[in-house]
Amino acid sequence: MILEQKQTNVLVTGEDSSKKATINQDKIAKLQYLLTKGLYSDPISATIVELTNNAVDAVVASGKDPIEHPVIVSITDSLLSIEDKGIGLNKEEFENVVMNYLTSTKEDDNQAIGYFGIGSKSFLSLERSATFICRKNGIEYKFLCYQGEEFLEYDLVYEKQTQEENGVRVEIKINDYFEKKDFINKALKKLSYYDTVLLYIGGELTVNKIIRNKHWQQSSNCGTQFMHFCLKDVYYEIDWNKLGLNRIDMPIALRFDLDSGITPTPSRESILYTSETIELLKRKIETVANWFVEKYNEEVKEYDTILDAWKEFNKHSKYVELRDKTFCIDSIIKYATEVPKEFSVKNLPDARYFHNKVFSILNNYHYVGYSDYYGNLYKKNIGVWKADFLIDNTSFTVIVNEVPSRNVKSFLLEKYEGKKIHYLVPPKENKRRFKPEKGKLHDEFCYWDILNLNNVSKSSWGTYIKQFNLVEEQFKCKLIDETQVETSKEFLQWKENKKQERKSKPRNVDSNYVVLDKKEDEYTLAICRKSSFSGKCAFDKQTEKVHASSKNKFLTVYFDETDREKAEFYFKIVKNIRIAIIGKRERLKIQNNHNFMTPEQFEKSKPFRRLVTAIKFDNLLDKYRDMKNNSNSIIRKCLPKLNTDLEILEEYVRKNFKDAHSSTQIIMDLAESQNLWDYEHMDAYNRIEKELEQYSFLQYLQVPSYWDKKAEKEINSIITKMLYVQKTVRGLHDNIEITIKEPQLEEVA
User: Fold this and answer.
1) Which domain holds residue 574?
2) Selection from 538-552, 623-637, 699-713 with the highest mean pLDDT
3) Cα 306–chain centre separation
4) Is 633 within 8 Å of 707 (Cβ atoms)?
5) CA 113 to chain centre
6) Burial class (CB in 10 A: 0-12, 13-18, 19+), 678
7) C-beta atoms surrounding 91 within 10 Å
8) Are 328 and 319 in contact (CB under 8 A)?
9) Cα gap 42→33, rounded to integer Å
10) Whole-angstrom Cα distance, residue 670 to residue 21?
């Protein structure tokens, strides 16, 4: 990477008495410390990025296509390995480059990421050794590098002949499980934009989908939800304070080439925010904002009917879909010079006005009830009719002459595949009145009140009425006429079939007994569901194909009839898992099926670990929720790391725990005694558990009416002072160091 060299021409008159600064030879060890241990704030990320960059540069230097010859980064339980098939290193090159500070082969190459000559020593910041296996021209060398008493030292472990191609592999020890998770998370993030790198975790290749544009890119492995940027492939966070902009909540990276004019710091953890760099970032944000607005405008269209556009009315945000990814562009629009378009509806210039009449459209029909998915008919307290019901793909709306009888209801449920059905009785009068009847002040069914015509000029009355009628006609097309259902051939045949079925059922059985027409290749089970009675559960019998059961996408935990109470308990708390009762004979048919588990098997499985871990997280969050009500915005603004941890736990709970307010102490005791936890996010849990008590004072801070830089600065100051008191008085916060900053002297021009 070529860095811009700035020179200042100084005219010296008379004798030149200027002196050059020097470094005492006995202070070289201190300089080495500053270039390794003292340089990086995040040693793990720095080590991964620096060594990977060196590997990519080596492939490029060899003349090979880096896409066809990718760098292999591997993380196992105990080892980080980074290997390239580039130019390789012999003994002399290793000594001159790896073991020599500030020496780089890339100072005059703008295609190479490196420059400073310190990246190969980054592993020293981890305070451990590294192994370099170097191959060059048929000879393989193995070097062990480590921190000596004062300086970086190395040993040549072996030198031997090899048939392998040139290249270098660096190996660094990983201490424990928690450090391994840290390595994985940071590798996923920091290497997310390298299409020249393959990342293996536990021997398996991670799948990384990159959407790339000239000015921006997005990676499925990155994980961050905020805009960042990349200098070539290297990930950097944006310091929004230095830009003087609000953070943009879009998970994309701005793209810059190495010769763009942006200069990284020696640690490569950040960049130098010069005035030119700030301007470059702002211009790039504007360019990307315009790109997304233009892409959004391409999708904006005119709809034929208001029904086609109905979902658009309910969208409070603007989205752009690219491949299988959806981007919300609300936070970036304000930086665009392009103006987002608005959708329209044919023959309805003010379509949004009529969308707001959702409770008036077809309100002259009488809403008499509905049937739910389980066949229950509701006629009382059914709520108000609204046109949204006709847009809902999970239900049908039918026209009937009266509330349907039991037979009609059952027939319609079968006819419409068990979906929810709304019942409407048609109006007695075909046309709406213009104004309320004489003597009435208001009439919710007449045009005058529906369209608020008293606030509209008389010349526009006809237009409004015509457009409202058009809207109603479009909605009427979604109504299904079942007024003649009881005399239809289809219904009469259905009644006859049901009659014959009843005759074929065995007699002298309990009235609640369900007879199923089970075939030889089927099994019977009773699936748990929520009953219409509050807090209760019901079990519905059904048959399923044995050969198809292994293809189900969901797990079924099955119980014996005697364990019904336990089955109901699990139904109330588990998420995305089916709870069922299966008889002993039927179990023989599914006992070897991986989609079925007994309670005992379930309590040793990964889904159970996720469940109890979610409950553990939820119990901790319960302590936080009272504080969150008062302090959520403060935590989000001033404590982003704590906020991120809380969001991680909340998302995990949402995915794995139903939260039915059931007593879970028994399974929590089981998990505690046998250590049945999912440790994926346990580090976040531990941090929150430690910090919650320390930050309890936040709930007593007043949230500003609106956030600005001044308010954020003042609240940050209050938090700092409170932490200082806790540190000095209560002895908390071992990780906090109290320093006194010396006043800065102003430069005199």
Assistant:
1) 522-602
2) 538-552
3) 32
4) yes
5) 30
6) buried
7) 14
8) yes
9) 15
10) 67
Residue linked to tokens 């990983």: 174
Q: Please state the rounded mean pLDDT for residues 242-265.
A: 92
Amino acid symbol at 195: D
Integer Cα distance of 319 and 256 in angstroms:
25
Q: Tell me the average pLDDT of the chain.
A: 84
DSSP calls for 227-280: -EEEETTEEEE--HHHHT-PPP----EEEE-TTSS--B-TTSSSB---HHHHHH
Q: Are residues 181 and 61 in the same domain?
A: yes
Dist CA 137 CA 141 (whole Å): 11
Using the structure block, give the residue that is written with the tokens 């990977």.
Answer: 52
pLDDT value at residue 199: 96
- How far CA 586 is from CA of 202, 353, 521, 542, 596, in Å, comes to 39, 58, 11, 12, 12
The label of the residue with tokens 């008499």 reads 368
Q: Are 358 and 386 in contact (CB under 8 A)?
A: yes
What's the CA gap between 721 and 698, in Å, rounded? 12
Residue type, 642: L
Q: Judge if 116 and 248 occupy the same domain.
A: no
Same domain? 115 vs 179: yes
**CA–CA gap between residue 76 and residue 519 (Å, rounded):** 50
What is this structure's pTM? 0.57
Same domain, 162 and 37: yes
Assigned token pair, 454: 């008293």
CB–CB of 255/236 below 8 Å?
Answer: no
Nearest to 326 by CA among 282, 358, 296: 296
CA distance 421 to 460: 38
Q: Write the DSSP string, 720-744.
A: HHHHHHIIIII---TT-----PPPP
Query: Residue 473: helix, strand or coil by DSSP?
Result: helix
- 200 with 298, same domain: the answer is no
Nearest in space to 690 (alpha carbons), one of 641, 738, 638: 641
E runs forming strands in 553-653: 555-559, 577-581, 596-597
HSE value, Cβ hemisphere, 13 Å, CA-based, for 731:
0
Under 8 Å CB-to-CB from 77, ≥6 apart: which residues? 174, 177, 180, 202
Residues 402 and 480 placed together within one structural domain of the fold: yes
Q: How far is CA 140 from the centre of its chain?
A: 45
**Mean per-residue pLDDT for 644-667?**
85
* Among 577, 602, 627, residue at a domain's last position: 602
- Mapped onto helix, strand or coil, the DSSP state of residue 636 is helix
Amino acid at 428: K
Distance of CA 565 to the CA centre of its chain: 36
Phi, psi of 325 (to 5 degrees): -120, 135
**Span between the terminal Cα atoms of the chain, in Å:** 33
Cα(378)–Cα(372) distance, integer angstroms: 8
Which of the two residues, 614 and 519, has the higher pLDDT score? 614
Rg of the chain, C-alpha, whole Å: 35
Handedness of CA 676, 679, 683, 689 (dihedral sign): negative
The single-letter code of the amino acid at 289 is A
Where is the domain boundary, 316, 346, 376? 346
In single-letter form, the type of residue at position 522 comes to E
241/252 Cα distance (integer angstroms):
19
Cα–Cα distance list, 252 to 258, 320, 414 (Å): 19, 13, 48
Contacts of 612 (CB under 8 A, 6+ apart): 664, 667, 668, 670, 671, 676, 677
Pick the residue with more confidence: 276 or 715? 276
